[in-house]
Specification:
The chain is an all-beta fold. Strand 11 (147-151) and strand 12 form a beta hairpin. The protein is built from no helices and 14 strands. 11% of the residues are buried. The strands form four sheets. The chain has a four-stranded antiparallel beta sheet, with no helix packed on it.
Length: 183
């Protein structure tokens, strides 16, 4: 007769469960380029593992505190779909950096940087002339308002030349330069 013998081995294993907060995620935010005085609209989608979506908080701030009141933010809707509208004062120009922060019910926060570039308005003068003077210098002449801006390439970036008035004499001996009239 065959008798089967078994033995039992006991092992004690200690398991520690550490709760970890998965941070909220965001889709739909991107850099944008707009005309002066325009606004940017974003359709955002939020996700979070632990927090109910309607409990997620959104905050937006300009990274340059000097623009302060010249930008306004509005966040609307609830749940996982939110709309963000960013509006700009007519006077703002150039690249503006922002940060959107999503905070969950446990205090976990995710930050998302984005940039909005506000184009310079290109001014259409009543007339614009380029003259070569007798001594070889080159002069720009325009009628109407507008500020002269200079850039190092066709696409810019262009910077306003302080106190430039018509007629404006170009500097000699410079490499290629590009000019435009802006508001």
């Amino acid at each position: 007769m065959y008798k089967r013998q078994t033995s039992t081995v006991e092992h004690l294993v200690e398991i520690n469960v550490v709760s970890e907060n998965d941070l909220p995620t965001l889709e739909g935010l991107s850099n944008a380029v707009v005309d002066p005085g325009a606004s940017v609209e974003y359709d955002l989608v939020l996700r979070d593992v632990e927090s109910p979506l309607d409990q997620l908080l959104i905050g937006v701030r300009a990274l340059d505190p000097r623009i302060g009141e010249q930008v306004s933010f509005e966040v609307s809707a609830q749940g996982d779909k939110r709309a963000l509208s960013v509006s700009f004062d007519e006077t703002l120009r150039g690249a503006l950096a922002f940060e959107l922060v999503v905070v969950d019910s446990d205090g976990g926060a995710s930050a998302y940087p984005f940039e909005v570039t506000i184009r310079e308005s290109i001014f259409q003068p009543e007339s614009l002339r380029i003259d070569r003077l007798d001594d070889g210098r080159i002069e720009l002449r325009w009628e109407g308002s507008g500020s002269l801006a200079i850039g190092n390439g066709f696409g810019g970036p262009f910077l306003k030349i302080p106190n430039a008035t018509s007629p404006f004499q170009l500097r000699s001996g410079e490499d290629q330069e590009f000019f435009r009239l802006v508001d």
